[in-house]
Write a structure and sequence with these properties.
It is a single chain. The protein has helices at residues 24-31, 39-54, 60-80, 99-106, 119-128, 144-148, 151-156, 180-189, 208-220, 232-236, 267-273, 313-317, and strands spanning 85-89, 111-116, 134-138, 164-168, 196-202, 242-244, 304-311. By secondary structure, the chain is α/β, with parallel strands linked by helices. It has one domain: Vaccinia Virus protein VP39 (Rossmann fold), CATH 3.40.50.150. Helix 1 (24-31) crosses helix 2 (39-54) and helix 3 (60-80) packs parallel to helix 4.
């Protein structure tokens, strides 16, 4: 698998919003049952699903839904550690429960910045996810200084307090030559110890043929980003300067299934359901018993490793 980009073709003046070729954000939206996609995205998605199913690997829709449930568990975990501000990088189109919706059910004071470079994604997200403590910013995560110096970011987030940095299913859209590890380090160096990094990233270790086939498809069909599967070791490098919390770097189904409450109730809805009776866990994530992994869950190791890390004290004194 080549992790180097082809020669840039430049913007097509006849296709300013990019509807001639498949778009990764719109494909993800389609996989989640959304309507913000075009025929070219649906065709590419169906072709990718057919290819991976033929190799015995979970299709995109299964992976997409699991990733959204994972997002909710990770936000729940960081909330439980006292984090009240989040930087969601490469956030994509609004789908199912988004970061601010998850956070605000338990912590209405939580503040969330969404960052995406796609103009259609950004404008659509700004319209659908507006609200107190929420900012949608059109910016390129590959240029951390641009993001971190933006007045909206500096105005909403307090960088003297812990921040949850989130790269959910996005770093595998960056070429090696774009040095995604350096991108993550720059965001790491901007936050205080006790901040968190949450990410999920594609890997092809279990099914290299499927990973190579999917990468080739993104190139042959001219998707707007590649999908580059990386090894466990390369994914672990993103956590330099962080300490991985338990259970470490694992597949999504293994990451804290005790927090599997994808549509967590707010305090208000619980009180309404219980005729005004509140409980001692008001305002806190509602924990449920660990759920058994679905049949064939081991196969999803073909697509993602995920983890959450807390920034080390020592990395504040030794950046880079």
């Amino acid at each position: 698998m080549s992790a180097q980009p082809p020669e840039p073709s430049g913007l097509d003046p006849d296709d300013p919003i990019g509807i001639r070729y498949p778009n990764t954000a719109r494909i993800w939206n389609y996989q989640l049952g959304g309507k913000d996609n075009f025929a070219v995205d649906r065709k590419a998605s169906d072709a990718a699903n057919a290819m991976v199913r033929g190799l015995g690997v979970p299709a995109g829709a299964d992976t997409a839904v699991e990733s959204r449930h994972l997002l909710q568990r990770m936000v729940d975990y960081m909330l439980g550690q006292g984090v009240r501000q989040f930087l969601d990088l490469g956030s994509g189109l609004p789908n199912m429960a988004s970061t601010h919706q998850i956070a605000h059910r338990a912590a209405p004071e939580a503040r969330v910045i969404y960052v995406d470079v796609d103009p259609v994604v950004s404008s659509h997200a700004a319209a659908l996810m507006a609200g107190p403590g929420v900012v949608t910013l059109r910016a390129d995560l590959r240029e951390p200084e641009q993001v971190l110096s933006d007045p909206q970011v500096r105005g909403l987030l307090d960088f003297g307090q812990p921040v949850g940095i989130m790269f959910m299913c996005v770093l595998h859209c960056l070429w090696d030559s774009e040095d995604p590890w350096h991108v993550v380090r720059q965001f790491r160096d901007a936050v205080v110890p006790g901040s968190y990094l949450a990410l999920t990233h594609m890997t092809g270790e279990a099914h290299p043929e499927a990973a190579e086939g999917l990468f080739r498809m993104t190139q042959d069909l001219h998707w707007n980003t590649p999908l580059i599967s990386r090894s466990r070791a390369d994914i672990a490098r993103f956590f330099d300067g962080f300490t991985l919390v338990e259970p470490g770097l694992v597949r999504p189904a293994q990451w804290r299934p005790d927090l599997d409450n994808p549509l967590r109730e707010s305090r208000e809805s619980r009180e309404s359901r219980h005729d005004g009776e509140s409980s001692e866990d008001d305002g806190q994530p509602v924990l449920r018993p660990a759920a058994a992994e679905p049949p064939g869950a081991a196969a999803d190791a073909a697509w993602h490793f995920c983890g959450v890390g807390v920034k080390d004290e020592r990395s504040a004194h030794n950046p880079g």
